[in-house]
Amino acid sequence: MAHIPMDDVNTLWRDTPQRDWSAFHRTLQQHKGKVNGISDALIDLLLPIAQRFAQSGQPYPNSPEAMYELLNQQIRALR
């Protein structure tokens, strides 16, 4: 089953200081295609989730742990 590891969440949290879904979406796009780091397959799963959250007004998580739970819940729902 696919999931986003906590290390990847911490990286994305650190690289998104604006703390909103639009900025998170941009961060994901910046990570796509890099040799090391977060897999492109995982980024492809997360991009539409981030876009949907931005459009719906979903509150941005207040910690990396909360983001980890929210994103993995969304990924599990895709299966």
Q: What portion of the residues fall into strands of 2 or more residues?
A: under 5%
**How many strand elements?**
0
Helix and strand run: HHHH
Over all CA atoms, what is the radius of gyration? 11 Å
Main sheet: strands, sense, barrel: none
Principal-axes geometry comes out as globular
- Return the domain count: 1
Secondary structure tally, helices: 4
Distance between the amino and carboxyl termini:
8 Å
Return the average pLDDT rounded to an integer: 94
Helix content: 55-70%
Structural class: mainly alpha
Catalogue the unreliable spans: none
Blueprint of the fold:
Layout: H1 6-14, H2 21-31, H3 40-56, H4 64-78
Helix pairs in contact: 1-4, 2-3
Descriptive notes:
This protein is mainly α. Helix content is 66%, strand content 0%. The protein is built from 4 helices and no strands. Helix 1 packs across helix 4 and helix 2 packs antiparallel against helix 3. The longest helix has 17 residues.
Write a short abstract of this structure.
The chain has helices at 6-14, 21-31, 40-56, 64-78. The protein is mostly helical and 79 residues long.
Could you name the key traits of this structure?
single chain, 79 residues, mainly alpha, 4 helices, 0% strand, globular
